[in-house]
Amino acid sequence: LLTMAAADIVPAVPWPWRPERPTYTVQNAAPHVTPNSITNNQRVGDERNFVRIREVATGTLFRDDVQLEAGKKYEVMVFYHNNARTDLNTKIGADGKPVGVAQNVTARVQMPGRLDAGATATITGFISASNATPGTVWDNARATTTSAVALRYIQGSAKIASSNGAVNGAALSSNLLTTGVKLGYNQLDGVLPGCNEYSGYITYQFAVDKPDFTIDKQVSVDGGKTWAESAKTTPGST
Fold first, then answer.
1. Contact criterion met (CB below 8 Å) for 115 and 145
2. CA-to-CA distance for 108 and 158, rounded, in angstroms?
3. CA-closest candidate to residue 129, choices 197, 96, 80, 91
């Protein structure tokens, strides 16, 4: 079983995941490579709801939405699971590769850099595999604020937070929020066998900053000796 504390995550509720796709259960896994499509995962519930968020300091549960406050840090979780049946991990296909092993598995997160007062930020996570059907799935978490703020990724915070494999605890580059990063089990090589024991989740953190300063512009015509709101000059002067 995945080494994730069950109390860390609030049971899933309906949320805007995409695309529409066939679903499976723990008892009846998929006959092919497909990501995050099991509806009764004992750790996260419906895997289609795989992006969640929480405040760091309070240690609250991962949820689908959160109210942001300036000066605080937040953590985003992205769960990943190749739902192919276990027996397909050893069945070799026409390409010479195991039928149930996902290839070129990547994760990517899209998050805005700023948020206006009263607006809602959509944090979208994408899980992809080159031999999966569908090839990419995505899900959203939401963050709201009552004042204009900036959302700043905390450098070095992205990691594989939970995996039974050798990648457990591995650091992920900030490419997670741009072009994406490869996942894996034995190494971050994009290779992920099918079954719950090979699943895991990513976390990263961001800080909420609120501008709290004023700007005062002045001009000097004597090399910085005196400054004023306005000054008279002549053509060619500095």
1. yes
2. 11
3. 80
